[in-house]
Amino acid sequence: MAQTSVGKVNVANSKLGSQGQRFLATGTSVGMRLWENEPPAEPKSTTRRDYETVGYVLCGRAELTVEDQIFKLEPGDSWVVPRGAAHRYTILEDFTAIEATAPPSEEQP
To answer: Is residue 5 part of a domain?
Structure first.
């Protein structure tokens, strides 16, 4: 059955994830989240996810390693992490980005 409801999510009222991400609008096939003012840190652990991720950098800088490729992410850059790909992020300076995941990385209540 097709989704027929329309919704709106204000970031001030959005669910906060366990890693600091804010869950924004989520449909049946795609979900959006915000990573806001992530501070510089040691590289996050390498992981594989059961969803595809696309993202867009609003401000700051980070390094993304996907399998054996390294990408520098800066404002205006966008990226893709394929479903199941080994990847990790290293935040180099306060970093804000929007990501979309398909399927959604987490259901909204």
So the answer is: no
